[in-house]
Input
Amino acid sequence: MELRRIGRSTLEASVVGLGCNNFGMKIDEAASAAVVHAALDAGITFFDTADMYGGGKSEEFLGRALGARRAGVVLATKFGGIAFSQKKTGFGAPDAVVASLDASLARLGTDHVDLYQMHYPDPATPIAETLGALDDCVRAGKVRAIGSSNFDADQIAAAAAAADASKGAAFASAQNEWSLLAREVETDVVPACALTGVS
Output
């Protein structure tokens, strides 16, 4: 399996990753574990989940399925989706970021997340404040790299500028919908990522 570096981080992951959003929603723990082990056996080293998937069960199932094989993977999760889905804001505030991370670490059964992603932009919190909290998490050893999800081109550029100004952790990745049926990101998001060194 080909490996690729994630942005300007030190993380290298398989070019094919496994999205774990169905764990705890469409499939149970036994089926989730079977999928994880099949992926590992195929050479997949990137596993992506979120605190909102399956009401937290996705993180729990994934953490238990990885078990002793945890060290050999890039484990990615996201925060803020629960609040966003409830039309709440403030999930990017420093205290909320730390609380979300600690809860995810407990569910995943690990002491660090390799890639911690902001699931949606938080209109109530300046991105510089969120990045400051994420930088603290990186410095504490709880997170290796950070990323965004569902940010538009302007938000990606603003986050990169804020990180440059603070000299702190910057988003290494952007996770946005992109497929043969959804190609809108090619006109703005992809160029913004290329300009800022974001995968």
